[in-house]
Design a protein that fits this description.
The chain is an alpha/beta fold. Helix content is 37%, strand content 18%. The protein is built from seven helices and eight strands. The chain has an eight-stranded mixed beta sheet, sandwiched between helices. The longest helix is centred in the C-terminal third of the chain and has 17 residues.
Length: 205
């Protein structure tokens, strides 16, 4: 099994390292102008030769985590469209730019360009700058959604493998709700006088 993480973000690097530590084969897909000479990325590439273009990472991987900035999504969607994604498991970890008037979801755009893949959403509550957004290490869970097919159990296990609690948020149509959950936390953070990060935790009885 090989996992491809798309995006040169802190989230991609952090999740990738966690899966490497868990013994999983990992490859990182980045945009054509990404600076691979940044210290931590350079070490990852030198030791494991894991950094390549988006399309190459998609082709190599059985499981794909999209951890990129929204600005990189058109390039990623083109790579998804050009590659064979039928039967692959894709996890959208992104959040669309917040717009109060439009219900925008990156997940719908990904689905359009990889219609035969098994699409799920997870890890988006962490944000692409994780773990910098969680300096005290208080985020212990992530919410995931997707159709009730056998691959959903696999997504849950992938989440738990790297130490997070997996909270089932229902079908893939709930992806915009997970993004709204993230944006609400950011809105609260921006309106707090101390400008500290704000995180939610669901409490179940």
């Amino acid at each position: 099994m090989k996992i491809g993480l798309l995006g040169g973000t802190s989230l991609a690097k952090t999740l990738g390292k966690k899966y490497i530590d868990a013994g999983i084969d990992v490859v990182f897909g980045v945009r054509h102008d990404f600076d691979t000479e940044q210290t931590e990325w350079k070490m990852l590439n030198r030791l494991h030769h894991r950094i390549c273009p988006f399309e190459s990472a998609i082709i190599q991987s059985e499981i794909i985590l999209i951890c990129a900035e929204t600005s990189s999504l058109p390039e990623i969607c083109l790579a998804l469209k050009n590659a064979e994604t039928e039967g692959k498991l894709i996890i959208d970890c992104t959040n669309a730019q917040y717009d109060k008037k439009l219900a925008i979801s990156n997940t719908k755009l990904i689905k359009k360009n990889a219609p035969k893949a098994h699409l799920f959403k997870a890890f988006n509550n962490l944000g692409i700058d994780y773990p910098h957004s969680d300096s005290f290490g208080i985020i212990k869970e992530t919410y995931y959604c997707g159709d009730n097919i056998p691959e959903k159990i696999r997504v849950k296990r992938l989440i738990e493998l790297i130490g997070f609690k997996a909270v089932d948020a229902g079908l893939i149509e709930n992806a915009p709700l997970l993004e709204a959950f993230y944006h609400l936390s950011k809105e609260i953070s921006w309106n707090r006088k101390d400008q500290s990060n704000f995180h939610f935790k669901l409490v179940a009885s």
